[in-house]
Amino acid sequence: MEDRKAKGKAVKGSAGFSSAGEDLISKLPDSLISQVLLYIPTKEAVRTSVLSNRWKRVWLLIPEFDLDSSEFSDYNAFVRFMDRLLGFCRKENSCLHKLKLSIRKDGNDQSCVTRWIDFVATPKLKHLDVECPLVKRECLEVMPLSLYVCETLVYLRLHRVSLVSFESVSLPRVKTMRLEENVFANEAGLELLISSCPLLDDLSIVRRSDDIVKVVRVRSQTLTSLSLEAAGWDDDDDEGFDHENSGVLIDAPRLKYLNFEDEVSHSKIIGNLGSLTKVNLLGSFYLWDDLQRRNFFTSISGVKDMKIFWQTSMIMGTILPLPQFRNLSCLEAGLYVNCLQILPAFLESFPNLKSLTLVVLYSSRTEEIRLSLVPQCLLSSLKFVEIKGMFWGEPIMEAARRYEGSPCIGEAIGHVSNHSLLTVKMTLKISRFATGFNWRKSFKTLNPSAQFAMEESFSKEKGKCGEGSAGFSSGGEDLISKLPDSLISQILSDLPTKEAVRTSVLSNRWKSLWRLIPVLDLASSELPDYDAFVSFVDRFLGFYREDKPCFHKLKLVIQKDEDDQHCVTRWIDFAATPKLKHLHVDFGLLPRECMEVMPLSLYVCETLLHLTLNWVSLGSFKSVSLPRLKTMRLEANIYANEASLQLLISSCPVLEDLNIVRRPDDNVMVLRVHSQTLTSVSMRVGGGHDDDEVYIEDFDFEGFAVLIDAPRLKYLTFDYELSPIKVISNSGCLTKVSLLGCLCLWDDLATRNFVASISGVKDMNICYDTFEIIKSIMPLPQFCNLSCLEAAILPDSLGSLPKFLESFPNLETLILHICDCSLTLKEEIRLSLVPQCLLSSLGSVELKTSCCGTPTKMQVARYFAKNAVMLKKLVLHVSTLEEKSVVLRDLLALPRRSSTYRLYYKSPYESSVYENPTLEVTKDSIKPSSCNEAIRGCPGLIEESFSKKKRKTVKGSAGFLSAREDLISNLPDSLISEILSYLPTKEAVRTSVLSRSWKNLWLSMPVLDLATYRHSDKNALHCVTRWIDFVATRKLKHLDVEFGPVMLRMEMEVTPLSLYVCETLVYLRLHRVLLCSFKSVSLPRLKTMRLEANVYANELILELLISSCPVLEDLSIVRIPDDNAMVLRVHSQTLTSLSVGYPTNCYLYFGSENPGVLIDAPRLKNLCFQDEQSPSKIISNSSSLTNVNILGDFDLWDSAAQEGGLQKLDMIRTFFTSISGVRDMKISRDAFQNVKCDGREEIRLSLVPQCLLSSLEFVEIKSATFKVPFGLKLARYFAENAVMLKRLVMHSRFNSVREEDILALPRRSSSCQIVYVSEY
Q: In this protein, which residues make up the domain named F-box (predicted)?
């Protein structure tokens, strides 16, 4: 009886029950039980409802459901279950976080998915997966509009549903999107859905033939992974699909992984793929023609890892040689056995290939293969080769017997192994039916330095370990483990941290060795999730905290979500010890509010040598001490203010290399770089991201600036730097400058000053955008030291090339990229001017084009060949095979100014190593037969050497030979007239007496610049009206008419009506003329207008003239009292600069009338009033106003306003309120006196304004004369009250204030510097 009781006792520890069988789990709270149920399938969770009344409704609290309609008895039962479930959620006001539905329905079943999703698309839904397999198109479920505005959704997968038309999308948190076999309303709907996900990281699209989307457009700034696939189509689907007009357009600058699988679109255009790492081209792959194929493979030529199938290999074989894949290190390619002969030419396009996997597909017919060419990768980089074999076509046994001992695959293996210098491992995977061939015996005849492994699919042999294994003796003894810990840790420090940690499983001896490594190089993506990453780093640093070893390098690449914990700050705070030398912190895309803040200890790490910070926040700090820092990379960070970034840079006394990637919202408008040791600076603007979706293209960079003061700077790079102001000082050591991307500058003056500051460089690289900007200020300053220039230029700008080169008198090497050559030139390029460098120094010219027509290219080549006296080398890049023979023929026919030089052509379709000897063609041997021979015999190089007799020239005879032959007169008339246009008109006319040929040449000049005082006949003044009427109809661009001050009003010349409809006019200046009445104005290109002391028919005429210039940017008006324009009205949508005033010392009498100024210019940035005494001034829409100058006499007073009760103080307040948004203002003494209304004379300096307490840093006091107490009192006021004051400059004229009194002033700011300037 006792034995039976003993057996009946429950074993302690049974899951969920006590020893007495008590249910412990049911006592847990509902929230905890529902959390437990999350980890079991939904079907099993629902089954718990039968356990007891307590469990009946617990499963309804689960926020995640994964349901399949096939698990129910029928579709109606599934619908009833879903309705009950969502009804409970509606009643209890609970929210679902995840919903996955797999629905199988017939054509007669009711459509319920739309309303279900419409309900769950609440602010809490994060994961949605809807799958409706095998549903006909007319039965597809329609997605509700609420789905497109679900702002919490992170993951979205839709399979075989219909996406209707929608007007807006707001999916701010979606990171993963799967769109599989859906039907869309139109192409624009799919494009909008993709582009409206600002955080989209992973996108997969499976297309169907009837999805109504011909062209798939993918545009995303955050996308890193993209997969495009076509669903399995039958022949009927394929016939209904318009292949010819189908396409794929991808613009994703951060894309890393690209996958095409059975992608049938005939056009694929990919741009901005600088980050592309891996590409898979699987299944069927189509491209329309060879040009599209070449463009596509060129766009992906920067990848590092690529996998292609047999169809893709065949397509690539049709356009050999391929573009150079210089970054590709790993390749897996499928090849038909009959295509193995193209393998060497195929591999020639991968010069740095390290790992190669070949999948050889055997067919029933095979020809003998000859492999002779040895590609570059076999000689320099290839280390691992794996060859897999598959049979196709005939029965497998017959194929095995056919290929047993066949030389096809053996030839390929032998070719690779015998010519590859670095191959260390070759793996051959074969079928068991082919093992009859003795591969091991064949391997012995191959490269003995390679290690071969054969893997048989069905039977394997145990391999014996051979002698000489790395780290082991012949007896298998572990030699490495006998090394001391310090040496092993040094060896492990050269491995990635992930690989070093793996050594801990080798033995107990290695278990903790990796912890001695003074380096931590880890990416969060290498661990299962972010929490695991945090745990690992905490443990790693915890070990260092206990044993206190030296920590030299920390590199963290982190991808995290908004909800993940912040740990990097404390990690860096710990690592910033006196031994840390290298710190690299890199975050991916992260909202601004989630950025990690750098600790203060980082700024005083005195051993730090290299610092890289990407997407972090640099808080405020008071001091910086980085005495050894040499390299600093600051990329897309947020700073506390401008001063903190300036302090960080200037406090590195040995800093040499600085790279800054700015973002629009980084709190730094003016970037100041001050360093005495800096030698290299690189700046560009990258994208920012926050809740407001701040992107570069939507950001206004007005007010941004870059100020660089680095006297040892040698290398400067601006890449897409959009700050409109760039000031570089102390640039005497500058050697190389690269101006890439869009270079934004404020105006022509700012552009000229910037170009002048870099004019001492020796090597320069500019893009075509930069060329277009600086073209507007030509002639440029002289770059006397420049010897090497690489420039990109548009075909339409080639006419400006000679004038551009005129600024480089000592240029030796020129590399010219002609971009966008597909554009059709409107007119022939005229290259007539010969710059100095072509006559004295230019020795090498290289012309690079992508798709330029041969005539344009040869015209440029002819210009240099004809005019470059010292030319030694002229290189032309050929872009097409058809162009090759044409270029060769035209190269031989080029005229030669240089006595000896070489002509080259470079083609991407030929090897850069030429086997044929250099061809020398002399002047006597140029015949049609010899030319043809030369073209056939020389694949890539033509050298011509003309031997000319030496001719002595008379010293100082410019343009003449020893026989006094006139060379200038032999030039064409158009070139001579162009030369004369650079002379004053008076001097150009004087050339008419040189000879008969020069008599009328000056008449063809397009420029006339004359002053009336140069002529004795004053009656010519009365003809100006008809002169202007004549030139205003003949493509006039610049008109400047000025009459002297002696002209009376009745003697003023009248401007003709033709002037107001001159559609080519760009610049207009009129001084003391009469503008008559007109009905219409058409000046569509006028950008600058100067109207000085003119008389107008009425006010309306002047207003109409200004408002009818649609591109007017700069307007200057000098008024006179009797100009008939009492109220000046300026209305313009494009005006950026305005100057208004009266002549100095002009006596104004207004009488009963009140002149005024009314300005409405929303883009106005610069405003100047010069002696503007109009009593009324009204300015509206002044939000863009940046700079205001109020100079000379200035007043605000309106008698009519006074009678209406408006006081002068109110008018002054209204005016200054309208300009209160300016950033820079200058006001004269007289203007300040006129607007001061308190009438007090005694000086009272008691109030301390806010700027003195928070921001004022610089004060300069200038005065012609003032009493000593006033000067000292004013200086003392600023010194005692300005908290942030850094510099106070006091000018004293005739020693009115003593220096010792100024320097003895008390200062509230500890960093204030007082400067005394004495003027005599």
A: 22-75, 477-513, 965-1001
**pLDDT tens digits for 1254-1312?**
899 999 888 645 455 677 788 888 888 999 999 988 887 766 677 778 888 888 888 89
The CA distance from 205 to 181, in Å, is 8
Contacts of 1068 (CB under 8 A, 6+ apart): 1039, 1083, 1086, 1088, 1089, 1090
Strands (E), 604-703: 610-614, 617-618, 631-635, 638-639, 657-662, 670-674, 680-685
CB 782 within 8 A of CB 757: no
How many CB atoms sit inside 10 A of residue 1232's CB? Answer: 11
Nearest to 38 by CA among 14, 8, 18, 59: 59
d(CA 199, CA 176): 9
Widest Cα–Cα separation across the chain:
148
- The CA distance from 876 to 848, in Å, is 7
State the Cα–Cα distance between residues 443 and 440, nearest whole angstrom: 5
Give the DSSP letter string of 1192-1223: SS-----HHHHHTT--HHHHHHHHHHHTTT-S
**Mean pLDDT of the 134-157 span:** 87
**C-alpha–C-alpha distance, residues 868 and 901, integer Å:** 10
Inter-residue contact 636 to 661 (CB < 8 Å): yes
Pick from 670, 664, 663: nearest CA to 649: 670
Strand residue runs (E) in 751-794: 763-766, 788-793
Point out which residues pair with 64 in neighbouring strands: 98
Mean pLDDT of 270-278: 84
CA angle (32, 36, 41) in 5-degree steps: 145
Q: Is 815 exposed, middle or buried (0-12, 13-18, 19+ CB in 10 A)?
A: middle
DSSP letter string over 541-588?
Answer: HHHHHHH-----EEEEEE---TTS---HHHHHHHH-STT--EEEEEE-
Question: Do residues 120 and 99 make contact, with C-beta atoms less than 8 angstroms apart?
Answer: yes
Burial class of 1293 by CB neighbour count within 10 A (0 to 12, 13 to 18, 19+): middle
User: Phi and psi of 842, rounded to 5°?
Assistant: -65, 115
DSSP code at position 827: S
Question: pLDDT tens across 281-335, in order?
Answer: 887 777 767 777 888 888 888 899 999 887 777 778 777 788 899 999 999 988 8
- The pLDDT assigned to 1304 comes to 84
Tell me the C-alpha distance between 239 and 814, whole Å: 54
Are 1287 and 1315 contacting, i.e. CB atoms less than 8 angstroms apart?
Answer: yes
Q: Hey, what long-range contacts does 403-407 have (CB within 8 A, 24 or more apart)? A: 403/362, 403/366, 403/434, 404/434, 404/436, 404/437, 405/437, 406/366, 407/368, 407/369
**How is residue 810 written in tokens?**
């000592």
Tokens coding 274: 């600088």
Is residue 398 within a helix (H) or strand (E), and if so which, with residue range? helix 396-403
Burial of 745 (0-12, 13-18, 19+ CB in 10 A): buried
DSSP at 1304: T
Nearest to 325 by CA among 381, 367, 386, 366: 381
The one-character DSSP state at 1054 is: B
Confidence of residue 765 (pLDDT cuts 50, 70, 90): very high
What letters, b where the CB count within 10 A reaches 16 and e where it falls short, cover 1272-1287? bebbbbbbbbbbbbee
1190, pLDDT greater than 80: yes
In sequence order, the 6+-apart residues with CB closer than 8 A to the CB of 623 are 603, 604, 651
Answer whether the bond into residue 779 is a cis peptide, omega within 30°: yes
Of 1252, 1320, 1258, 1249, give the one whose Cα is nearest residue 1289: 1258
pLDDT in tens, 421-472: 444 445 554 443 333 344 444 444 444 444 444 443 333 333 333 334 444 4
